[in-house]
Design brief:
alpha/beta, Rossmann fold, eight-stranded mixed β-sheet, 8 strands
Length: 291
């Protein structure tokens, strides 16, 4: 299924028009999603001063998964937030979000979910991106996240008992699935993650609405009311289902906000919704990981 969020993300432009605008602005497309310019949104860059930044790899099965982490430079042990990327992988916006968590007093860790398949950062065609991403089994991503949990639990600057997970778009879907997969997760924040994904034998056998009973961590959902790919009814259904099952859940719908309203490198960015959602996200993790 081709997700309708693309129409939201480009604000009615075709992919060709969007790329043309980026090219005209002199932007090098190091990966489809890294089209970053004022014409795309309002690019936010978080400085590294006061932070300790590290890139490396974490073993997952027989593969070394690339990671990027950021934390406050001051000595200490910090609650952990795992950041799950969109389908475009561990690009600069996702790394910046990881630094934003570090600025808020967390050890932020993100990773490249599609490295085994050669990655997607070099691709400029959405069809090519989808060909790689849609063939990745959910079980593989869950296993990689298990490996990140193990890494974070051993991290000298991480608190093994205070691990949260957040993700955007496809990463939001994975956040919900992982909240039902791992009891190590103490809090989850979902940014416009799909709720009724296509199920394919060998790749995906269940979606978020199927695993409500398995979810144990408190869930905050951040969604756009004008998201063309995620109906408001689905958002309300999962919130009601979680609460009926005795789970801690809060889902926010931002009026007029499209899919990817937090992606400040795309024209879907909505400053008001993005800032409010970020404040809620930090408050959620402060409450359940620091409290």
């Amino acid at each position: 299924m081709v997700e309708d969020w693309l129409a939201n993300a480009y604000e009615g432009m075709s992919r060709r028009q969007f790329l043309a605008r980026m090219t005209a602005a002199g932007i090098g497309l190091a990966g489809f999603a890294i089209a970053a310019s004022p014409v795309a949104g309002e690019i936010i860059t978080t400085p590294t001063e006061g932070l300790t930044i590290k890139e490396g790899k974490v073993p997952s099965g027989h593969f070394q998964v690339p990671i990027y982490e950021a934390r406050p430079s001051s000595p200490g042990k910090y609650p952990v937030v795992l950041v799950i990327p969109e389908i475009f992988g561990m690009h600069e916006h996702i790394k910046d979000v990881t630094r934003r968590f570090a600025k808020e007093g967390f050890l932020g860790i993100t990773f490249e979910p599609y490295a085994r398949e050669g990655g997607v950062l070099h691709l400029t065609d959405i069809a090519a991106v989808r060909k790689i991403v849609d063939a990745v089994p959910d079980a593989q991503v869950m296993a990689d996240l298990d490996s990140l949990i193990a890494y974070a639990s051993r991290h000298p600057a991480g608190r093994a008992d205070r691990i949260g997970v957040t993700g955007f778009c496809r990463g939001g879907l994975y956040t919900l699935l992982f909240a039902g997969h791992s009891r190590e997760v103490k809090a989850s924040v979902v940014w416009y993650g799909q709720l009724r994904p296509t199920k394919t034998p060998g790749l995906r056998t269940e979606g978020p609405l199927d695993i409500i009973a398995k979810i144990h961590s408190p869930i905050l959902g951040l969604y756009g009311e004008a998201d063309l790919g995620i109906p408001v009814a689905d958002v309300k259904e999962i919130e009601a289902g979680l609460k009926a099952a005795g789970k801690i859940a809060e889902f926010i719908l931002y009026p007029g906000a499209p899919h990817a309203f937090y992606a400040d490198y795309r024209p879907s960015y909505r400053e008001g919704a993005a800032k409010d959602a970020w404040a809620r996200c930090i408050a959620w993790f402060n409450k359940y990981l620091k409290g």
